[in-house]
Amino acid sequence: MRCxxxxxxxxxxxxxxxxxxxxxxxxxxxxxxxxxxSEDCDDNAATTYPGAVELxxxxxxxxxGNIDNNAPDSDSDGTCDAFDVEECDGxxxxxxxxxxxxxxxxxxDGTCDALDAEECDGxxxxxxxxIDEGxxxxxxxxxxxxxxxxxxxxxxxxxxxxxxxxxxxxxxDGTADCVDVEECDGxxxxxxxxIDEDxxxxxxxxxxxxxDAEECDGxxxxxxxxxxxxxxxxxxDGTCDGIDxEECDGxxxxxxxxxxxxxxxxxxDGTADCVDEEECDGxxxxxxxxxxxxxxxxxxxxxxxxxxxxxxxxxxxxxxxxTEVYDLIDNDCDGIADEGFIAVGDLYITEIMIDPLSxxxxxxxxxxxxxxxxxxxxxxxxxxxxxxxxxFTVEDDVTVPADDYAxxxxxxxxxxxxxxDYAYDTDMTFGNGSSDELYLDIDGTVIDSVAWDGGTNWPxxxxxxxxxxxxxxxxxxxxxxxxxxxASSEITSGGDLGTPGADNDLCGTIDHDGDGFTGxxxxxxxESDTVYPGADETEPGVDNDCDGSIGNTLPIADAExxxxxxxxxxxxxxxxxxxxxxxxxxxxxxxxxSMVSVPTGSILTTADIDSPExxxxxxxxxxxxxxxxxxLVYDGTDxxxxxxxxxxxxxxxxxxxxxxxxxxxxxxxxxxxxxxxxGGSWRCxxxxxxxxAVDATGSTDGDGDELRYTWSTTSTYATIDSExxxxxxxxxxxxxxxxxxxxxxxxIVTVEAIDCEGDTDTDTLTLSYDCTGS
Length: 774
What we know:
6-stranded mixed beta sheet, flat
């Protein structure tokens, strides 16, 4: 215990482990570890000596100079196990036999979060708070495709390229019921057990209009606004045959091929009593219990009964053998009215529908005739025929009014909207695209005929009637194909083109108004010669130039004369353009008067009009005769057409007083020129220019005429400004100078005063220029 004593007594003078300082004998083994102090690095610790087992205790147990070397270090990180702390690194850091114990393992798979890799399993494998990050999420719902379940939402939830697989798709259109929308297609699109719900079902049969088929049942099955369309309606009454009831009307109402079946037919002639007419045959034809009533009587007391071939027993002017007169009646009962009174050209063909489209040919074909006379014409008994052998006789009283039309058609109704005056049914057919000729014959006389070639030269088009231009209505002109054209007006809205029973359209190939343009050339009004492409816009509210818009209308010039009474030579005449106007209401902003023509001997021109740019200028005529003046006005956009004004003047009474010219006072001017001596002589520049104001307005005329003036001079030194005015300026220039002397240049100026009749007088003045060289 010597060292201890020394430490206590000597204030611990560093004896720990330092054998030289402890004072311990070097061969002493103080800690009893079998190694003397001289060889032991810490003879106070029994576990510390050379060759001892290195422990994990922070001490160099084997005295080799290294601490804890060779102590257990399971993770080989240089920190022995006892001092090491477990980390998430896949190693047993503290040597306890467990790896990464107590480290966070969010998904519980035995791999701590820091080492774990995110997998697509619906778990947060790496403990970062996100699940399955980095994996596809096709529907963007936050659940990766690999673990997402397919929902019925119209989206590919699990990213397998299929949408809503596994869900019911009732209509098999690839869209699951849960997101499908009901369509009008006869299927249950949305799988609710109902088909086409919410779509219109006009006939309430449970089938939506969009797929319903029209039936002959008196209902609008398909909801198109039409009932039973497409089904036969033999009698044309608007009720299809399948539901129509037979009536006693002479028609096959129910379309079974029989007419008026089930109704009485007393005389057994196949015509039911209700529509049968009594005949003179000893039978009760009409089933009224009487035989030959009316037909057996002479109702009109003309000596003939119906039984005696009286064609109208109610008209005493109609009976067999009577003389035919022009009265629209078949007077002689030969089946024709007014034969012998109708001449060629009185009635002619103006329109033909060869190939209708709005209805079948056997319903919609028609032709139109026009009565060119001032009297009505009956076509009763006329024979209508063509070159193909078709013909019919007009069996009803078809009267064509004066200057009007009649229409003959295949059908009286259901024919494309044509209003027919006579229906000829199957008796005549026009061949589509083929040539034919149509004749109108009364008692063997062809009143008119039209031959066409099926489209080679004559117009031909499906659904369009060919028509005669209304400017060429005549029996001869309708033989010329150049006067025929396609119709352009609709018979009914959206239907065929034609004007049956009305005035025909103007042909676009003909210039009707003589303005040089046809309808086909772009003439938008071929009945007005002021309307055509490029015309001036002259009429308010009218598209004169056919550009599709109503442009600025030209202003209208109105040239008048304010001065009244007898007009004589030399009178001051006031012109007046103030009544000029603009149809658009624009102000007139410019006037331009001009002299168009003058009588023989007059020298007046536009320049003699005082202020021709004003609305009311003045003019003084110089000769008897007629002066023609023109006026143009401007509205800021366009100039008007020139309006002209004729003014006739006479010679004034008495002799003319000759004017007295007064040129004014003489004048003089003095100037000095600079001279210089050069080359042995004096040279001087010209004296400066001098201007003289001259005034002839003091001239007089005994008649008080307004005078005109002309100034003149023969001097080469003088120039004249305003030589035709009462006041002028005379300029003298180039006046020569001589050194040491004064030279005088004298210029004679003459003024001529002219009165309105051309009589003249002259006067002169002298201008003197004294020029001194110095």
